[in-house]
Amino acid sequence: MSKIIYVDNAATTPVSKTVFEAMAPYFCELYGNPSNANIYDIGDTAKKAVDKARAQVAKAINCSPDEVYFTSCGSESDNWAIKGTARALFSKGKKHIITTAIEHHAVINTVEALKKDGFDITILPVDSEGFVTAQQVKDAIRPDTALVTVMMANNEIGTIEPIAEIGAVCREAGVWFHTDAVQAAGAIPIDVKAQNVDMLSMSAHKFNGPKGVGALYIKKGINPQNLIDGGAQERRHRAGTENVAGIVGLGEAIELATSGLDEKMKQEAALRNYVIEHALAIEKTQLNGPKDMSRRLPNNANIGFLGAESESILLFLDMRGICASSGSACASSDLDPSHVLLAIGVPHAVANCSLRISFGVQNTMDDAKTVCEALEEYVPEVRRRSAIWHVNG
Amino acid sequence: MYSEKVMDHFSHPRNVGEIENADGVGEVGNPKCGDVMKMYLKIDGGNISDVKFKTFGCGAAVATSSIATEMIKGKSIEDALKLTNRAVVEALDGLPPVKLHCSVLAEQAVKAALSDYYRKQGVDPEPIVGKVEDECHACECGIE
Q: What is the three-class DSSP state of B35?
């Protein structure tokens, strides 16, 4: 197998060598249980490692370390924030949740589950680039609203939502505000204070950390109920022996990603812009998501190639060692077109022809060029055999 | 993932194209669902002397239509009508379960083209070819 060009970094990212090396000792040597910190050394070492990671996360998003809770993944963080809020506020008569039409399934399916428990759900529509406005949120808030949950940035089309404005509206109304920042953490700057966020989910594997570990920020004074009951870990809020190595990895990874964030964003944006420019030069293509690049994730390009079905393009790219995706990795095992593309008004037939290319720290301009050359070669080949592509357009 | 046979037919599809003044043309599927197959037949003396296809769809859709053209080219109409989706799947050394509907579409595309041939002859195709599902109900995607 020749070199792989991995441009599906919105699905997951390779673990950085630095992160891996930081994690390594916590498997076979420093395997102590942080809950035994008071007795022997390796327990104490493990606890200190978890504390350090907590401080690293806190610094990255501008909160206090005791507002950071480690979880098993982004989905758990989303479930905890949403179900925990629902359970905490239901008895106070708050039975309404507001979200958007383009959330990740970890949020959509969680609020849908609460619907069965008697919650009323408002799903805000988004505009043609995926944006929701603070005014829409304000208009949707009711006296019985328990929670507003709006993603910080969309995983498929890269839309960066106006989180600070939405947070301000929620705070004014006294409604808890959660944001799924799984795609944003490590990709764009986050400041939970400036952005008026009450709860924020992140997942390590999206920013060159390991899979199987996430975090939830919960602002002091916001008290969602526990999702996982049991032992006293995470200050009695999230039971289960800590994934010490994973947590160490998350801490190192978020520190790495945020310490060089400006440079990383510039580098990824250059590759994104190159791909968008060259892909759009192919006839009958369209950009899905924001056209204003300052409101789009620096690493995200999502392009529709009319008449060329996306899986066919991906198979050709794969033959060249290029790994891209046709939308969200979570949805690729079913055949339904992306709910995000449909929500921004992309017709089914175009949604089925859309590719997502997402860059990461390991990608170079050569990668972007190879991707474009492959698209220039294969899109016409896929169209040549397409029953809905006609030579004259 | 796909078998080598599927990838071979996907990367080197046989009989891609259109036939001008074809004796029968069949189109099945729906761009909304992500699969449209169009099949063109040239028929001489009850035999399929030439066949071409164009497919909008995934790798499996391209491969099933490609191999279906190979399986009916040079055959009699009677033999072509016996082509089943199961035979298409077997000839490709299997398909992932979520892609089985593509083989149904390939069978339906052949039948749609033969139905068109009979209609052009002024013959009601249904007693011979049977009912052709020209929309991809087989995929049960729920999209209308």
A: strand
| Domain assignment of residue A266, given as a range | 5-12+261-384
Residue A60's contacts (CB-CB under 8 Å, 6 or more residues apart) are A185, A186, A190, A254, A255, A257, A258
Phi, psi dihedrals of residue B24, rounded to the nearest 5°:
-150, 135
CA distance B33 to A353: 11
d(CA B141, CA A365): 39
Q: For residue A266, give the CATH number of its domain.
A: 3.90.1150.10
**Which of A311, A313, A317, A341 to substitute to test the interface with B, most B CBs within 10 Å?**
A311
- How far apart, in whole angstroms, are the C-alpha atoms of residue A192 and residue A218? 10
Give tens-digit pLDDT for A343-386.
Answer: 999 999 899 999 999 999 999 999 999 999 999 999 999 999 99
Flag whether A272 is in a domain. Answer: yes
> How far is residue A308's CA from residue B21's CA, in Å, rounded to a whole number?
26
Whether residue A197 lies inside any domain: the answer is no
**Where do the DSSP E strands lie in B45-132?**
47-56
B85 half-sphere exposure, CB direction, 13 A CA radius: 15
Rounded CA separation A192/A335 (Å): 37
**How far is Cα A32 from Cα A41, in angstroms, rounded to an integer?**
8
Domain regions of chain B by residue span: 4-136
What tokens were used for A194?
């400036």
| Residue A89 covered by a domain | no
Handedness of CA A311, A316, A321, A322 (dihedral sign): negative
Q: How many domains does chain A divide into? A: 1
> If DSSP codes are grouped into helix, strand and coil, which group holds residue B100?
helix
A330 is catalytic: yes
Judge whether A282 lies within some domain. Answer: yes
Q: How far is CA A51 from CA A70, A339, A375, B44, in A?
A: 11, 39, 46, 80
B10, B37, B53 member nearest A315 (Cβ): B10
Lowest mean pLDDT among A173-177, A293-297, A331-335, A340-344: A331-335
Residue A184 and residue A134 in contact, taking contact as beta carbons nearer than 8 Å = no
Chain B residues whose beta carbon lies within 8 Å of the beta carbon of residue A307: 56
Architecture of domain B4-136: Alpha-Beta Complex (3.90)
Residues 105-134 of B with CB under 8 A from A: none
> Of the candidates A294, A281, A376, A371, which has an alpha carbon nearest to the alpha carbon of residue A325?
A371
pLDDT digits (tens, 9 = 90+) for A292-316: 999 999 999 999 999 999 999 999 9
